[in-house]
């Protein structure tokens, strides 16, 4: 039986401890009060309101993103709409804008004195409350669903739909009884990401003044200084995340959609749009204007009013801070993700190592699924109680980024390991190379594309991350996201605009680099 070497086993154990210990300490902190206080906290009527708001917003966002992503994916994958590339861009580019940037841009565009009022004379009521949060989250999270549904529709075997039509099904019945069931795994995969994103969102709901668990955690910790209640709110949020993960696993159980025939699936003939051409263009135009044109025009408009040397000196310092932290976090995250992916790929053949691989991978995804504010709160309570010298340090912030985003880097590295044959590593060992020499000379060069892709994903995610940065950043650390949030919260739209534009530019450049490398 092959044993996992110490240089791979140690990072795996550190990941398990790094994710589980703070969450366990959060639980201990929550139950530290006396019974009367705990009873008052747990059964507080405010909790029911927050729970209802969080559930309602999550469910409504899933419905809204489905209504946007499904027709757009069908048009891009299965229709005669031209150019298809335009639809793919409309379905992916909103990911370059963090939700709180989109919220800032739409708030700054509307209302008296907003960009639309100044440029076009359109005094539109600013978005707010439930509908405002729903609209913004839908616009800037639907690409998670679009990408999955688009890929599923492109690979769906048209023979299944043709057989249904031969059996007398109408086009609508065929779509409902054949196409939609085969889109179920793709929908669940995208819906899981969106639901976790909505649960952990703090910027959008705060700007929209819509109370959810995430907004309440930040308020209780920073304004009310109620540490016990904020710990319970974090646990409630963790419970919702666990429930969503359980539901996704439950719905995916016993799903078997593999083709029986060994032949290669054909590409489906494009569906002619006919009278639906104009509505299709209307959908594409509405998405493009709401998610891309209005935010970009608004940000550029407000940036022009802030053209002064001091503002851009501050912007440059903020950009260097953000890029430096993101680059360091990308390096540490990729270094931690490599042994986790390697154990699962090369040592997951025996029961003992397979259990270790499953445990470390699930814990890594638990760290990613844990809402950022709850995870930040757990780290704060853990460091204050166990290692107070680590509290509010740059090292703690990088550790939080690493543990939260390590799951993002595992996927590209694992994909590279699947295609890289282990025979080359075995040949190097036969030639006298030590395990570390084989790793450095053979394995890492083969995995360079996957390592760079994983690092790029983490770099972009850290650059946009807001909740972890707000709660854990040391004094004096002012990255783009923190400066943008500070100015936006005080309605200083002109001061916030350069930071928003820099974030979008970094997001677009990083996304294009990832796409080019994976092309």
Give structural notes.
By secondary structure, this protein is mostly helical. Helices cover 78% and strands 0% of the residues. It has helices at residues 6-30, 35-42, 45-78, 84-92, 99-109, 115-120, 129-155, 158-166, 171-182, 184-200, 203-207, 213-224, 227-252, 277-304, 309-346, 351-369, 372-385, 394-419, 423-430, 435-446, 448-464, 467-472, 480-489, 493-518. α12 (213-224) packs antiparallel against α13 (227-252), α15 (309-346) packs across α21 (448-464) and α21 (448-464) packs antiparallel against α24. The chain is globular. The model is unreliable at 260-264 (pLDDT under 50).
Report the C-alpha radius of gyration, rounded: 24 Å
Would you identify the regions where 5 or more consecutive residues have pLDDT less than 50? 260-264
Tell me, briefly, the overall form: globular
Give a count of the beta strands, DSSP E runs of length 2 or more.
0
Number of helices: 24
Helix-strand pattern, N to C? Answer: HHHHHHHHHHHHHHHHHHHHHHHH
Keywords: Cell inner membrane, Cell membrane, Membrane, Transmembrane, Transmembrane helix, Transport
Pfam families: BPD_transp_1
Subcellular location: Cell inner membrane; Cell membrane
Organism: Deinococcus antarcticus
